[in-house]
Structures are given as structure tokens and as C-alpha cells.
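The instructor's notes for this session suggest beginning with a concrete chain rather than abstract definitions. Hand out the sequence below and ask the class to guess, before any prediction is shown, which regions might be ordered.
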Amino acid sequence: MNRPESNAKPKAIPEPSLRRLPIYYHLLQAMLAEGVTHISTTGIAGPLQLDPTQVRKDLEAAGMIGKPKVGYSLEPLIRRIEEFLGWDQTKEAVLVGAGSLGTALLGYRRFRQFGFHLIAAFDTDPDKTGLTIAGTEVFPLERLAEFCSSRKIRLGVITTPPGTAQSVAISLVDAGIRAIWNFAPVHLQVPPFVLLQNEDLYRSLASLSYRLEQMLAAERASVVLDPEPAH
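After discussion, reveal the predicted structure:
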């Protein structure tokens, strides 16, 4: 089975392309489970309602080039995406904020499939510290710096209330964290050498709610303008 030809890893990849790679990955995994061995950009684009040219450009931007008239061997393509995204290298991480959202993230076992392992949680609530949530121990926040230093942790997750998120971010940076995945609905200030990824659940919900209301309003207007004929 041929491995997709690969150039040296690109210095940069457009953010939209980067966000589409996991979408391709999940589709390819499903196809592999169905016994598919080779795939073309058209075969990837069709189920996702994307332009095949865009798919090809995305894969090329990540250093993956298919064979003319053959496309890509599926298993090597999947492995190459895993390597490019760093999913083949497990990254240990800590989570700060063992509330409902933090607890849900601690219980999401599929993170391990993507090279992400939450090995400890931290909180200021004495009722939470000392607990084990989904196999992960919750420590007092005062132990954050010592823990991250001893384990050389470089990735932190924030699931605290917005009022404490900035101070937690500072604590994480002081503890040696180089990348922060922030779920608190607040804009954080971090040094330029620290990567920051915000996941604004409220913004996503607001967008979905607005679009739903627009769709329902259009449907209601259509019913008014085009009533059922009287019998």
C-alpha cells in the first residue's frame, strides 16, 4: 500500500484548511471501517458537500499529494493526517476548573485518540479537591506550579467562571504552560510566546439560536403569504 507523497512539513497552513483536516479524518476513518482502500479528492468532497479542488489544496497544504488517477491510499493518508496534527504524539495536559464543564471534559475518553491526555485537574473548592473524576484526581490550585514543573506539562485547559479565568491563565503561564485551551467566555491576555485557543460556546449557541429563529420566521411568513386553499 503506497504512502501519500509528502513534502517537508509546511511552515504554515491556512486556519480554514487546518480546521477541515479533522473533518476529512473522521470521514476517512468511517470509509476505512467500510472496507475502502483508496480515495480521491472527489470521494472526500462529495459526502462533505465541498469543492474537490479545495480538498486537494487542503491536503497539499499539509504536505499530502495523491497519485494521478489513483488518489490516496486510505490508511497512509489517515496516518499522515494524524502525524501532521500531532495526534500520534500524546500530549499531557492539566485542567483548571472542575465544575460541570470541566467534569464533562474529564469524562470524554476520545481525547486520547487525538493525542490529548488530561492527567490532572485543579480547583479552589475544597469540596472538589481530593476527588477523582473519571479517573483523574482533582488537586488544590496551589499545587499547579509544582505539578506542571515536575511533569513538564505544556498544555492547560481553563473551564473556570469568567471572573477567575485571567488569573488562572497567569498561573498557568507562570507554571510553564505554552498553550491554553480556554472555555471561559472571556478574552484572555497571554504573552506572545503562549498559544491561546478560545472555545466560545455561548457565541456558537447565539449563532445557532439566531439562525433557527430566522428560519422559523421565514416559515411562518410563508404560511401567511401562501395559505392553504379553502375546501
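Then share the key points. The domain at 5-85 is CATH 1.10.10.10 (Arc Repressor Mutant, subunit A). Confidence is low (pLDDT under 50) at residues 1-10.
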